[in-house]
Amino acid sequence: MTHPLPQTIAFLGPAGTYGEQASRRLAVLLGAPEVTLQPQVGIRNVIQALQEGRCDAAVVPVENSVEGGVTTCLDVLWESGLAGAEPLGIERALVLPIRHALLSEGDLDQISEVLSHPQALGQCSLWLQQHLPAALQLSTSSTAEAARMVRGSRFRAAIASRQAGQEHGLPERAYPINDQPGNCTRFLLLRRLPRGGSVGAVGVGQATSLAFSLHSNVPGGLVGALHCFAARDLNMSRIESRPSKRELGEYVFFVDLETDGQTDALNDALDALAPLCERLVCFGSYPIEDGTLGDLREDGQP
């Protein structure tokens, strides 16, 4: 399905988040650099804004190279199309390098609390253990929200981007502080899909994302499902499970496939997989931009 260029994009705010950086880069890739960005509080609110028609597209983080899948994003994607919720599809993806800074109006020896998004705290856990072992770690809805919350305090610090420090006028006490130099996050550009089917648009793309639940938990059930891909030489680049939230031991499986130019094989695999599943959702085939290469500065900004 071809979408018109977006006029508005929702992202995890406030200003200065990595989500904002990803949104601006994706808008340029789409040919819509003048798009209006709409910051939201929380990933669920970002996607809800799209489902309710308050924006044309939404940008959300789905996976980090250090901390793994962003569970809220996965859960909301699975819920889309259920109970009246608008079905969603993936139009593009962007892999963005993540370089965290420690921002504070106090000196390092004054800091007793460190605020950030849980993923960012996890990505800097070794640095925090070595340099601020006694500091209390507090979770916030986003890295930029952490920067906003520590303004005016000399005992609080935020883990956020350099851009967030500039937005909120916070001095930089250390940079970079992420434990892994190759730290990066994959962001998705989401769009609303037309109703009328449980499987989204499938076409030519570098990757295809889907999710499924099996009819029952039986020996070899998951192996049989994955054989649908292996038998057609479709390589999985990622598989992750999430609780179904209905009962203990019941799971939903999220799979990314390398499918560039393999549309027929993909359609055959989905046809074979569907009878094995209680529910099967394909979020579409899409290109992936590697923002860790090319014309990005080291702080992740274009």
Fold blueprint:
Layout: E1 8-12, H1 18-30, E2 36-40, H2 43-51, E3 57-64, E4 68-69, H3 71-79, E5 88-97, E6 101-103, E7 113-116, H4 118-123, H5 125-131, E8 136-139, H6 143-150, E9 156-160, H7 162-168, E10 172-174, E11 184-192, E12 207-214, H8 221-230, E13 235-243, E14 251-258, H9 263-273, E15 277-286, E16 288-290
Parallel strand pairs: 1-2, 1-3, 5-16, 7-8, 7-9
Antiparallel strand pairs: 3-4, 3-11, 5-11, 6-9, 6-10, 12-14, 12-15, 13-14
Question: Please, could you describe this protein's structure?
Answer:
This protein has helices at 18-30, 43-51, 71-79, 118-123, 125-131, 143-150, 162-168, 221-230, 263-273, and strands at residues 8-12, 36-40, 57-64, 68-69, 88-97, 101-103, 113-116, 136-139, 156-160, 172-174, 184-192, 207-214, 235-243, 251-258, 277-286, 288-290. Strand 1, helix 1 and strand 2 (36-40) form a beta-alpha-beta unit. The chain folds into three domains: 8-96 and 183-196, Periplasmic binding protein-like II (D-Maltodextrin-Binding Protein, domain 2, 3-Layer(aba) Sandwich), CATH 3.40.190; 101-174, Periplasmic binding protein-like II (D-Maltodextrin-Binding Protein, domain 2, 3-Layer(aba) Sandwich); 198-290, Alpha-Beta Plaits (2-Layer Sandwich). The protein has 302 residues and is an alpha/beta fold. Residues 196-200 and 295-302 have low confidence and may be disordered. The two termini are 28 Å apart. The chain contains nine helices and 16 strands. Strands 1, 2, 3, 4, 5, 11 and 16 form a seven-stranded mixed β-sheet that branches. The protein has a five-stranded mixed β-sheet with strand order 8-7-9-6-10. The relative contact order is 0.18.
